[in-house]
Structures are given as C-alpha cells and as structure tokens.
C-alpha cells in the first residue's frame, strides 16, 4: 500500500509481510531523526545552572518530607518523655525521680531543635522554588545558590548537630548522678544530686537558647 501526502514531503510506505503491516521510514523522516539526535548531543557542552537547581530542588523535596517526619518524631519524643517522668514520680526513688525529670527537659530541648531544623529546611525549599521564577543576572544566580544551599543548609545542620551533641552529653552526665548501689534500698538513701542536675540542665538551656535567657533576665530586671 502506498500513501502519498503531497509533493516535496516524505512518503510513508507500507508493505504486507506475514500478515502484518511493516512500516518503512522515508528518506526525509530519517533525516529529521538524525538531526534531532545530533541536536541533543551537541545541545550543551555541560550541565547548566538550571540543571543543578532542578537537582537541588529534587533533593530539597526529599528533605522537606524528612523534616515532616522529624516533626512527628519530636512530638512523639515529647509525649514519651512526659510519660516517663510521670512514671518515675510514683516509684518513691528520689534519684530516679529527679533524673527522669531532667531527662524530660533535655528531650524537650532536643525536640525543639528538631522542630527548628524542620522549619529551616522547609524555608529553604520554598526559597528555592521562588528563586527559580526570578530573572537574575549570572552573578546574582551564583551568589544566591551558594548562600542558599552550600552555606544555609550547612549552617543549619552544623548548629543542629552541635546542640544535639551538647544535649545528649548532658544527658549522659546527669545519669551518672544516680547511685549505682545494689546492696541497699535506694529509696531510703539520701540523694544529693538534685542541685547539680538542675544547674547542669539550666546551663545547657542557656547555651542552646541564649536569646531566651537574656529575655528572661530583662523581665526580672523590669
């Protein structure tokens, strides 16, 4: 079967072979396909800024999903810390009661850090999406991308990791205040670590949230 569209254009031929139509590509169509492939090969000599931003945006979307999970994790952690502290109050052990109360405070601090990291990641994702719609010069492009990803996200993760290390370092330190004695009933022992644990956690709180501590001092002075 021969189908002719118009003069000057390629022809498409069909031939019967074993009961089915077999398409034979015409000369003009082969030329168009070859030109298209060459265009793809020589279109760009390397990756563009737009390609990099697309990859960063894809990564940021995964980070955004992770931040949502981290937020839920923080909520569950707060609830678990509260329940743990409530359980310890009923045990009649002054040391365990005190330390679990301080651990509750520390886990709340860590949950706040998780929420902060989650919020910062979300902001970076939104900024990147806005940035892609702007028409900026190359120098502004380079500066914006550098500040947004390589510096901004790095600072957020470094701050989070440092504060997390401080929080759980304090956690381990105050746990050592619990008397490790197996020959006596610790419920009747005198526990003297409450002041130490309270001051240690308060010191950590001031280092993690210095702006809140300064604000509290101003309220006391006023």
UniProtKB/TrEMBL annotation:
Highest classification ranks of the organism: Eukaryota, Metazoa, Ecdysozoa, Nematoda, Chromadorea
InterPro entries in alphabetical order: AH/BAR_dom_sf
Superkingdom classification of source: Eukaryota
Cross-referenced Gene3D superfamilies: Arfaptin homology (AH) domain/BAR domain
Protein name as it appears in the record: BAR domain-containing protein
